[in-house]
Amino acid sequence: MFGFLPNIGFSELILILLLALLIFGPGKLPEVGKALGKSIREFKAATSGVKEEIDEAIKGKEKA
Fold first, then answer.
1. pTM exceeding the 0.70 threshold for the entire prediction
2. Angle CA(12)–CA(15)–CA(17) in degrees, nearest 5?
3. Which helix (DSSP H) or strand (DSSP E) does residue 64 occupy?
4. Sign (positive/negative) of CA torsion 33, 49, 52, 47?
5. Cβ neighbours for 32, distance < 8 A, ≥ 6 positions apart
6. pLDDT tens-digit profile of 24-50?
7. What is the tens place of the pLDDT at every residue in 8-18?
8. What 8-state DSSP symbol labels residue 47?
9. Are 24 and 32 in contact (CB under 8 A)?
10. Are 46 and 38 in contact (CB under 8 A)?
11. Contact, 18 vs 26, CB < 8 A?
12. Distances in Å between the alpha carbon of 36 and those of 7, 60, 61?
């Protein structure tokens, strides 16, 4: 299901979601999900930027 969590099954995922519901409560859970999604998007953008810089550096070395 998730590339970075290969050993988590459906029952484990439900358990994690229930624990999050108990810890944060139903009112805060959407805010926590939104913040988590924003953090993941920013991380992906940062890693893609670094990957592009590395690819450019490799291409520059090949031309030289």
1. no
2. 110
3. none
4. negative
5. 20, 24
6. 888 888 898 899 899 999 999 889 888
7. 788 888 898 89
8. H
9. yes
10. no
11. no
12. 21, 36, 38
Closest-CA residue to 10 (of 2, 32, 36)? 2
Task: Record the tokens describing residue 19, joined without a space.
Answer: 């624990």
Predicted pLDDT of residue 40: 92
Rounded CA-CA distance 62/40 in Å is 33
Every domain of the chain and the residues it spans: 26-64
Mention every residue, 6+ apart, whose C-beta is less than 8 A from residue 20.
29, 32
Residue type, 18: L
